[in-house]
Amino acid sequence: MKECHFSNRFIAFPEVTTEAVFSLDDDIGTLSVDEIEFAYQTWRENPERLVGFLPRSDMHNESNGIYVYNSESSKNMSIIVTGAAFYHKGFYFQYYGILYHNFLPILMRNCILAVKNCEDIAMNFLISTLTGKCPLKVMLRKKFGCPDCSTNGISIWATRQIVQRLECFDKFPAWISEKSFIFSSFRYDSLPYRYSSFTPLDDSFRQVGTL
């Protein structure tokens, strides 16, 4: 692994002994412990799914067959960005990471390597195809702070990234179908977060982020 490939984040390293893998980008700096714990507990109830905070969606134009990537947060989503997400190291006796590097078409992985993006879209495609289930969004948070973006140039909202992801959706239809990504409007929230009048027996999930 001499080169830094974006797909390396999904390598099933033998040093990872837990079933849960928390994938986190280095420009996500505002997640609280409660938010991470709540996402983990949600994943434990749905271990075959991708569980995370940043939803995205794809749109299929039936008239011309073109897929379009929607980078805005909305009620309906079909993709969870793996910049802040839990997934199972292995399910159905297979490692998702191993399947990612061996099951996905080589041309799709080469496209990811070329544009240096879209590995999370491919992982969503893989998991939804294998399970027939949509990813899960937790909490209502829409944006995440990036304390160092002004100095190191890192930004998950950069225009260049959107262009790269649109390029992926321009090439991916050779392998994906209209049913590759499964839509959902469902969201997991903690009771104290959704209902201010709710009084839990302890202080679980009190420190959740604002919009």
From TrEMBL:
Gene Ontology MF: a single term: glycosyltransferase activity
Gene3D superfamilies: Spore Coat Polysaccharide Biosynthesis Protein SpsA, Chain A
GO cellular component, one term: endoplasmic reticulum membrane
A GO BP entry: carbohydrate derivative metabolic process
Positions in coiled-coil regions: none
PANTHER family, alphabetized: ACETYLGLUCOSAMINYLTRANSFERASE
Membrane topology: Single-pass type II membrane protein
Glycosyl transferase domain boundaries: 5-191
Similarity field: Belongs to the glycosyltransferase 47 family.
Protein keywords: Disulfide bond, Membrane, Transferase
SUPFAM superfamilies documented for this protein: Nucleotide-diphospho-sugar transferases (SSF53448)
Protein name: Glyco_transf_64 domain-containing protein
Subcellular location: Endoplasmic reticulum membrane
Main location: endoplasmic reticulum
Organism: Ascaris lumbricoides
